[in-house]
Amino acid sequence: MPPDGLKNSRKRKQVDEDTYTPQNTVQLEMLTDEEDTGPVSSDDDETEEFPEIDSGSDSESDQEGIEDDDEQQSDDDSDELDSDASLRIFPKAKTEISDITGKPKRVYPEIEADYDSDSSTEDAPNRVGNIPMHWYDDLPHIGYDINGKKVLRPARGDELDKFLATVDDPDAWMSAFDKNLQLDKPLTNEELDLIRRLYKGENPDIGYDPYEPMVEWFTGKGKEEIMPLSAAPEPKRRWIPSKWEKQKVMKIVRAIRQGRIVPNKPKSTNKMEFFSIWSDQPSALQQPPAPAPKVRLPTNSESYNPPEEYLPTTEEQEEWKQKDREDRERDYLPQKYPSLRLVPAYDRFIQERFHRQLDLYLAPRVQRVKLNMDPKSLIPKLPSPSTLRPFPNYKSLSFAHTKGRARCLSVSPDGAWVASGDEGGVVSLWEVNVGRETKRWQFKNKVSSIEWCPRMDVSYLMIGVEEELHFLIPPNLPDDIYSRTKSLLSPSTLPAQPSPSPLTWESISLDGQSIDKPILSIRLPSSSGTPTHIAWHRRGDYVATVSTGGPQNNVWIHQMSRRHSQAPFKKVKGSVQVVLFHPTKPHFFVATQQYIRIYNLSEQQLLKTLNPGMKWISSMDIHPSGDHLIVGGYDRKLCWFDLELSDKPYKSLRYHTRAIRSVCYHPTYPLFASSSDDGSIQVFHARVYNDLLTDALIVPLKILRGHQVQEGLGVLQIKWCTRQPWLLSSGADGQVALWCS
Amino acid sequence: MSSQQPVTLTTHTAYPLPTQKYLIPTSWKRYHLSQLVNKALSLSQPIPFDFIIRDQILKTSLGEWCSENNVGEEETIEIEYVESVLPPQKMSDFPHDDWVSSIICDIQGCLITAAYDGHIRAFDYSKNMLASAPVHSAPITSCTIVPSTTTGDTLTIASTSHDLTASLSHFKISPSSTPSSNTPGTILATLHLHTSPLSSISSNTSGTHLLTSSWDGLIGLWDTTIPIIDEVPNINDDDGHEKKKKKRKTENEIKPRRKAPINVLKSHSGRVSKVVFGETINSDIAYSCGFDSTIRIWDIQNGVSTHTITAAEKPFLDLAISPDGRHALSTSTDRTLTLYDLHSKSTPQSTSFLHPSTPSCLSLSTNANQVVTGAYDGIARIWDLRSTKDAMTSFKIGGSDEGGGVMKKILDVDWKRGVVGVAGEGGVEVWRVGEEARK
């Protein structure tokens, strides 16, 4: 193989020589360079400087002499080289008689500066080497030649000369300053070519061919390697079935036969599936696994011998001990022991392991959520009650019923008189502002409800006693009102009864001082219970009564002008507690124990059912605008309904500690109040806006206390004074109180 | 010696001191200050004084007052001294069966009460009933004496009632030895205007005119002459035989004439609770207050309201006018007694005196610097108008001072000649109060 390579290289060299014939021209040019160098040495500048420097003339002559020698030697060498260049590596030395010493010396022929030679610039006269040339700036010479003679500084012209030289010599641009010789030296064609190649970004080597044909050493035609890897015969296992496989299969077959393995067994679904929660591969069914909790690495302060700055002071220790475990910044106290031997057993080891187990088990433990918020910020911003005056805030006077609980009261439409009834059957009429009883009626059974007729042109009040309704005329009426009232309640000609009714209307023609007795009585059907609630229509012609306590509920609507009563409902689901007339529309509100139904009386149909979500409704009242309803319940809740909004309460308030007995809107002021069995009355500011976007504003104003709780009963009924922000309340203690602003 | 406080002493009484700065030991109390004033004035008979510092009556020592009000020792305090009100002394009580709504102490040695049972009674101070007459069938709400030229024992009394009328009646007060059971009172005329119960009646000082106020918001102006014939026809005479019975009954007696008003003053939008004449003789000015939170000043001759003071949500209950007509004092249901300056037309300046209960009535003293109010908690309080914080003194009506009994509402007070008559739920009590009481 190697001989082939050598052959090839030689071949290539030959190819090179053949292909690079144009390089002969370059060599020719180099010859011209040599020719150029000749005149440089014998330049005009040098000749001009020569006469000034006397000492240098010897060396110059020497140089010339040497040069002559060199030429001769080169001639000789060339002869010798021609003859035996291939035989001898080193040139043959000649022995000459030195001019200086006069002794024979061996002179080697000049080494041709070839490609392989160390330096192509050996012929440079200055041999100082690669030193900063400014060392010779002050000297007349610029260095030494190979023979140790001084190389004199070549003469250098001034700037004008340089300019003239560039003008005269068209090739001046092709010269470069040679530091070593301290003169401008014209560049050779090779160097110019090198510069051009570098400038063009080509390979600076002339002889480099980037598109050299590939030499195929190992591949190609006729060079394929034919070499078998093994000559061993093929093993048996290549064609004989495996014995171990057979045994394995037979084992499975046996197991299948014995029934230990059931093939195509349906996967049991009821079996619990367990997941390796820490496994690397997330199962498809499960969430990506949570990273396992890791024990924190100990720090300096947990060392048995921590640096002093980690040790807590006594105050810090005290503080740490005072804090709860959850509040502590770290769950240990750094302690210092002089040696590891003195470190006691870790007291919290078991605890900590246990918690670690719980951590791994993902055991949920009680976590105290800290809320660092100002509790005051949770309270909604409400206007101050003092800006919402007037509202009742003190008890001005009270009127005492001695015979029993004051069940009911009613305020006259002009707001000057109060009628209150008690369980002893007494109905008292008294002035709101002085509290002096002016009239008293006595009945046999307990008075359960009183309501004043809202008409201003007549004046009478209606009371409900056991299965009877009575109508009373207050004393000291003006004559015209008295006569109108009398003719309404006890007309001289009775209107015809439209249909037979289970109720009987009985009028007493007035004679003498008969205002002591009711002028008109309505007898409800027997065993219908006590009429506990009376609701007047706004115009004062219709009045609805509700009787409870009987075997069945009775809602009756009575028409005063026609002296006629009718039952609006044939059958009512649940027991009716309260009824109400809408102040402007022909709507009728019926509250059973849990629901409130709104009926349209003119169209005779159910409009809406309200669900206040309470167990037992005790009372309700409608806002004078007719859009809002408050409902109080025995389960202490008070619900505010916006009738245009929803069937569900707009607000559900629960602030009484006992059952709510009575709720009431003020007819003119934005106030409402509720009374309860806890003996207190709560007064609220309730501003209702006309636009539908603004919700009603409810502000608690005042808790009025003063009624005694007797036998679990507190304030049984409240009513507002018509023209003043005053509240009247009747309590189980027999007191009827006036609360003034 | 303890520290001293520089003070100056001023007064509006008839006992002025030269303006001068005194250094008073801070341990001194009212008694010491009063002695100082007495010595400085060198009075022959010692007069007790009360001292008012910044609208407060000095009840503690000067030093304690200073520490309470954060007054330094360097500050000069201006102290006003007034003749002190002696602790009221109860003279006698007159138990009534029914509530007494009105009391008059105008007449020397005699007091007249009007009760809810419709009777007007007269007593002397030794608990003897001089006269008693049923004037109204319904409760009487107020009464007044009409000053007249009639001499002797006969008085003309005007009264208002729940029966929608007021009445003028002659009332004969006979000596206690011979109680006149036979008709001590004669109803001269009934005044018919109002459609609601009447609340108050007032007579001018010459006794020629009457003013009535009612719950229906009207004020009636009447003269006191008794007409010969009925000015208002009786509707009830025609219908109902029960009236005939009554008529038959009254035929025996002198039938009272039915009078109509001269003028009706309409401006109040709510109940008028009190109307009074101006204090000067033949005054044409009347003052009224009502539940519509206004005090109105009326020109009676023209029947128009000349000035209105509107308060915020103060339903007024009673009204009194100072003798010079400058100030109005009024009680309201918001538990205040309020002093209004009537002459400041633009914004009425007011001073409030707070009560723990509803003050239903008030009466000015003769020197017009002190006022007594009666409240629903049964306590009558005497206020000095210069001291707004506390009442000068107070006394409880109805039984012992320990307060064991129930509260008895006071409905009317009258303060004349050193005597305060207090009428209310528990009857009438007479207390001796004021500077005249000493003499």
Explain what this protein looks like in three dimensions:
The complex is a heterodimer of chains A (741) and B (439). Chain A is an alpha+beta fold and 741 residues long. Among the domains of chain A are: 157 residues, no CATH class; 354 residues, YVTN repeat-like/Quinoprotein amine dehydrogenase (Methylamine Dehydrogenase, Chain H), CATH 2.130.10. Chain A is 20% helix and 26% strand. Chain A contains eleven helices and 35 strands. In chain A, the strands form ten sheets. Chain A has a five-stranded antiparallel sheet, with no helix packed on it. Chain A is elongated, with a radius of gyration of 65 Å. Chain A starts with a helix and ends with a strand. The N terminus of chain A is likely disordered. Chain B is mostly beta strands. Chain B starts with a strand and ends in a 7-residue tail after the last strand. The longest helix of chain B is centred in the first third of the chain and has 12 residues. Chain B has a five-stranded mixed sheet, covered by helices on one side. A five-stranded mixed sheet of chain B has the order 11-12-13-14-18, with no helix packed on it. The relative contact order of chain B is 0.11. Chain B has two domains: 80 residues, Phosphatidylinositol 3-kinase Catalytic Subunit, Chain A, domain 1 (Ubiquitin-like (UB roll)); 350 residues, Methylamine Dehydrogenase, Chain H (7 Propeller). The interface between A and B is medium-sized, with 27 and 34 residues.
Rg estimate of chain B, integer Å: 24 Å
Q: Could you estimate the helical fraction of the residues of chain B in percent? A: under 10%
Instruction: Give the distance, in angstroms, between the N- and C-terminal Cα atoms of chain B.
Output: 39 Å
The CATH topology of the domain at 387-740 in chain A turns out to be: Methylamine Dehydrogenase, Chain H
Shape assignment of chain B: globular
Level-2 CATH architecture of the domain at 387-740 in chain A: 7 Propeller
Q: Give average pLDDT of chain B, whole number.
A: 81
> Helix/strand-derived class of chain A?
alpha+beta
Describe the biggest sheet of chain B? 5 strands, mixed
Q: Could you tell me the strand content of chain A as a percent range?
A: 25-35%
Helical residue percent band of chain A: 10-25%
In spatial order, strands of the major sheet of chain B run: 2-1-5-3-4
Through-space gap between termini of chain A: 129 Å
CATH architecture of the largest domain in chain B: 7 Propeller
Q: What portion of residues of chain B belong to β-strands?
A: over 45%
Give start-end ranges of low-pLDDT stretches of chain A: 1-86
